[in-house]
Amino acid sequence: MHFKYFEWDERFAKQSGKNPFDTLWDLFQQLLTISSGDVSQALKWLTELDDEYDITAQFDDGYSLGDFIDELKERGYIEQDKQTANLSMTRKTERSLRKRSLEEIFKNLEKGGVGSHKTPHSGRGLERQPESRKWNPGDDIGQIDSVGTMLNMLNHSSIDAFNLQEDDLEVYETDHYTSVATVLLIDLSHSMILYGEDRITPAKKVAMALSELIMNNYAKDSLDIVAFGNEAWEISVDDLPYLKVGPYHTNTMQGLERARHILQRKKYANKQIFMITDGKPSCMIENGRLYKNSFGLDRKIVNKVLDEAVKCRRDQITITTFMIAQDPYLQKFVREMTEANKGKAYFASLDNLGDYIFEDYIRNRKKNVK
Questions:
Q1: N or C: which end of the chain has fewer CB within 10 A?
Q2: Which pLDDT belongs to residue 174?
Q3: From start to end residue, where is composition biased (Basic and acidic residues) (predicted)?
């Protein structure tokens, strides 16, 4: 497995305006994500970077990596086991990694490109539109158009008396906000770290950022996360920083099946699956045993995946696939699966994976409001 680092600019620490701890903390969080939450490994890499680029030499007052580690403990970001002396992350660090991933992705989105969960339909909502209409019983009186209402009243009032009638009342239209149930599927097959390219780290960042966005901004939405390799299993938000690629094949069929079963239990009008993958389906469970074929596209496996895509469509579950591989024959499979589900597919690079997912998540509002 290979990593690519940019040349350290010795002017960065001073020009960024950050104190020594914040400068190292930003770099350390990146290393923690790559190391799947292994604090000792991340500190080892940080030490190697410091030896090569003299990062701490740029700090005033002789601030060292030892001071940084002590401060991490004092601030509650890492803790040390009393028996084994092993270092580990705390919940505070897990939350910080999610927040950092969210900020990193939003920084790349166009200003104004991200907003609240709106549908293209009008109804009760939170964001006022410029258009107004006649008031109906049950409408929110807080949305009354006072100017339009006064003009209506003046049309049939005299100089001596104002006569406000029910038909004079006008209210502003508002954008309708709806809730969405999402299952995020993350491919943990071995190909996610093959060919010298780290594909799992961007996938983890997106998952952490999306969970942070939903928990803090869209409390009525739900996000479940399913990892899949030889089989599929549910994971919690707290598990995300620790995800590792295994010696797995790709059981896409079971991943979709697991996601569909989760969404069947949700009482939401809008249900969707986001799947991040870089490879072809190469295995499935048949008669309780693992059937696998890593050579080419095995139609036996592919047909099972397509059957699952159709089942999702019948349950009104949209599958959006984010393909981070450029092989034409794999893209052909994704298009075939997308057609079976009537869903969507993006052939994204690792650099813009987060942009694609966030923009699609925010505009996926298809509930008809009358």
A1: C
A2: 62
A3: 124-137
Characterize 280-312 residue by residue with b for buried, 16 or more Cβ atoms within 10 angstroms of its Cβ, and e for exposed: bbbbbbeeeeebbbeeebbeebbebbbebbeeb
Block residue for tokens 């940084």: 68
Which residues are 275's β-sheet partners?
185, 321
From CA 200, how far away is CA 187, in angstroms rounded?
Answer: 8
- Domain ranges in the chain are 12-89, 126-176, 180-363
CA 159 – CA 146 distance, rounded (Å):
19
Interatomic CA distance for residues 39 and 37, integer angstroms: 6
DSSP letter (8 states) at residue 7: P
Residue 64, pLDDT > 70, answer yes
Compute φ and ψ for 174, nearest 5 degrees: -130, 150
Cα separation, 114 vs 362, whole angstroms? 7
CA distance 361 to 310: 21
pTM reported for the whole predicted model: 0.76
Query: Which structure tokens are listed for 196?
Result: 């010298």
Strand extents, DSSP E, the chain = 78-80, 87-89, 118-123, 125-134, 170-177, 180-187, 222-228, 232-235, 270-277, 283-286, 289-292, 317-323, 344-347
Token match 């690792």: residue?
Answer: 350
- What is the token pair recorded at 44? 């080892």
Which whole number is the average pLDDT over 300-327? 93
